[in-house]
């Protein structure tokens, strides 16, 4: 895979907010009978603009750190990059196999064993059953969970869950790794292992996009950084200018 | 768009474009049918984890209902058990498939919300998951059907192919109804309750437990009930009777119109479904 790339042009993403009450059919029908006045407010429904006119170009070897206040749009951008959202305007194009580590509980069945969850998550991540069985030993070893893999996931601590999720997600021969915040859950040993895997990924000419509030973590993993503020992105800067971006707050 | 290697999402609009994207979703779900199957299988396994009989518990409760109702109603209606028991058995099992697929359709997207909001998985995958899960359940309950067929010697008179045809048409129809329920329930939280009420009503309005002999052939009460056609095209041939050809025609027309409607609704709402959740 030589032409791994992320290309985001003029991306605007809005969340229509369907009020809890509006989710009741009764109310909507009532609105229809009332007609015009309220109908107008239906078309101009409440919306949150999570990202606006965002441009981003990343090439193989780029490790981008995302910073910004709570609610600035980091998670939304990562989700959009994973292909979950259709843009309201603009375009997202990602070349390469994507592995998204956004929510630890994705495809996790708490009452199933670790091994079953590896299978489930692997299937969701796009691996075939055979691929998963082939990699099972490697994943199991990397997770370092040993006998716990035969136990239901609900008996795991947050860090143990993170290990499993990370082990599966990075077992996919991914070119683009999207990570949201959580990597700090692991202990020092795990961080070291994760670090090696991430470097490995980058050596394979992959792309990493990592969102974090932890400047140290960003310095460790990223070579570029971008700041989001209210859905508006700064320029992509070299990681050495992280302080500048942080100061701009 | 979705080779696993290339992901493209655009803000482009236009009816034709929305339809082509919806079609893409369908095609991708077909390429990744193994995933729908794994998810469905996982659902069945996980629901009954730690239970020895698993889905057969439902089979057993259905079997008891078949025995009880078969014996009681045969007496009440003055019909022979040999005639009534297989009739009720098939009625309960196949109506179970219909009710299950439609009722669980309401949860399809709601349940998949975390996956939908962080992956580019096709939405159709989750529709197939619900349908396949119900087919897996049906495969367990088929034990009851096989039992009555053997016990009452129906294998001598039954006609398998029209029944399979009926089953296929039924599944195709159930799939769109299930999908429509999935989309509607994602947006309007009253829909699941509504659907459940309709299905509860339908089980009594459809000749599941009773024989439609009191009605003249093609009476509107039956003809206007889609579940009647689904049930009769599967059940009649298995009982060694012939289902009215009209029922097959109605099911076929319903399948075409229903899918046209559902697919259009999907094409229009596809972008927003993830935001509904
Ligand atoms: N599903 C949703 N529905 C409506 N609004 C949403 C949804 N998800 C996010 N938002 C809004 O989008 C904006 C960006 O949220 P996002 O989760 O991307 O922030 P973030 O930068 O990841 O914040 P944090 O640092 O807290 O994780 C916020 O204003 C939030 O309210
Ligand atoms: Mg976030």
Please give a structural write-up.
The complex is a heterodimer of chains A (249) and B (277). Chain A is α/β, with parallel strands linked by helices and 249 residues long. In chain A, the strands form 2 sheets. In chain A, strands 3, 5, 6, 7, 8, 9 and 10 form a 7-stranded mixed sheet that branches. In chain A, a hairpin with a 2-residue loop joins strand 8 and strand 9. Chain B is mainly α and 277 residues long. Helix content of chain B is 75%, strand content 2%. The radius of gyration of chain B is 20 Å and the shape is globular. Strand 4 of chain A pairs antiparallel with strand 1 of chain B, so a sheet runs across the interface. Bound molecules: adenosine-5'-triphosphate (ATP) and magnesium ion.
Radius of gyration of chain A: 20 Å
General form of chain A: globular
- The tally of structural domains of chain B comes to 1
Head-to-tail CA distance between termini of chain A: 38 Å
Number of beta strands of chain B: 1
Task: Please give the count of helices of chain A.
Answer: 9
End-to-end gap of chain B: 24 Å
Beta strand % of chain B = under 5%
Radius of gyration of chain B: 20 Å
Q: What is the residue-mean pLDDT of chain B, rounded to a whole number?
A: 92
SS-derived structural category of chain B: mainly alpha
Helix content bin of chain B:
over 70%
Bound molecules: adenosine-5'-triphosphate, magnesium ion
The helix content of chain A is 25-40%
Write down how many β-strands of chain A occur, each being a DSSP E stretch of 2 or more residues: 10
């Amino acid at each position: 895979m030589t032409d791994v790339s992320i290309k985001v042009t003029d991306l605007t993403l809005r969340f229509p907010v369907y009020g809890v009450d509006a989710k009741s059919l009764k109310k909507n029908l009532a609105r229809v009978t009332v007609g015009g006045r309220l109908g107008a407010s239906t078309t101009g429904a409440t919306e949150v603009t999570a990202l606006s006119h965002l441009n981003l170009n990343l090439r193989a070897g780029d490790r981008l750190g995302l910073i910004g206040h709570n609610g600035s749009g980091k998670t939304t951008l990562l989700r959009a990059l994973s292909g979950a959202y259709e843009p309201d305007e603009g375009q997202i194009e990602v070349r390469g196999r994507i592995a998204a580590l956004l929510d630890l509980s994705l495809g996790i069945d708490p009452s199933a064993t670790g091994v079953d969850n590896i299978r489930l998550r692997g299937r969701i991540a796009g691996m075939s059953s055979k691929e998963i069985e082939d990699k099972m030993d490697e994943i199991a070893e990397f997770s370092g969970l040993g006998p716990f893999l035969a136990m239901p996931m609900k008996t795991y601590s947050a860090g143990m869950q993170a290990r499993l999720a990370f082990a599966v997600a990075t077992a996919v021969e991914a070119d683009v790794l999207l990570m949201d915040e959580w990597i700090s859950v692991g202990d020092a040993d795990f961080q070291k292992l994760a670090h090696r895997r991430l470097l490995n990924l980058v050596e394979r000419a992959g792309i990493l996009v990592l969102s974090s509030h932890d400047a140290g973590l960003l310095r460790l993993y990223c070579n570029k950084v971008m700041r989001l503020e209210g859905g508006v992105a700064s320029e992509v800067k070299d990681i050495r200018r992280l302080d500048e971006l942080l100061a701009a707050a | 768009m979705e080779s696993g290697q290339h992901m493209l999402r655009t803000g482009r609009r236009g009816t034709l474009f929305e339809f082509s994207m919806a079609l893409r979703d369908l095609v991708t779900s077909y390429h990744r049918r193994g995933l729908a199957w794994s998810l469905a299988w996982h659902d069945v396994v996980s629901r009954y984890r730690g239970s020895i009989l698993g889905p057969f518990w439902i089979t057993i409760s259905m079997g008891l209902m078949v025995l009880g109702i078969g014996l009681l109603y045969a007496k009440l209606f003055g019909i022979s058990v040999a005639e009534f028991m297989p009739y009720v058995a098939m009625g309960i099992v196949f109506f179970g498939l219909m009710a299950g697929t439609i009722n669980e359709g309401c949860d399809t997207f709601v349940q998949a919300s975390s996956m939908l909001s962080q992956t580019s998985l096709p939405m159709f995958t989750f529709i197939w998951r619900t349908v396949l899960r119900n087919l897996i359940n049906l495969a367990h309950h088929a034990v009851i059907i096989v039992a009555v067929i053997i016990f009452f010697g129906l294998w001598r008179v039954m006609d398998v192919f029209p029944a399979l045809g009926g089953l296929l048409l039924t599944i195709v129809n159930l799939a769109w109804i299930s999908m429509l329920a999935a989309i509607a329930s994602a947006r309007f939280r009253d829909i699941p309750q509504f659907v459940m009420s309709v299905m509860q009503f339908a089980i009594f309005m459809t000749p599941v437990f009773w024989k439609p002999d009191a009605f003249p052939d093609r009476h509107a009460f039956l003809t206007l009930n889609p579940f009647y056609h689904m049930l009769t095209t599967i059940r009649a041939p298995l009982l060694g009777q012939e289902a009215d050809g009209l029922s097959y025609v109605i099911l076929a027309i319903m399948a075409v119109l229903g899918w046209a409607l559902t697919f259009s609704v999907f094409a229009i709402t596809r972008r927003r479904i993830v935001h509904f959740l």
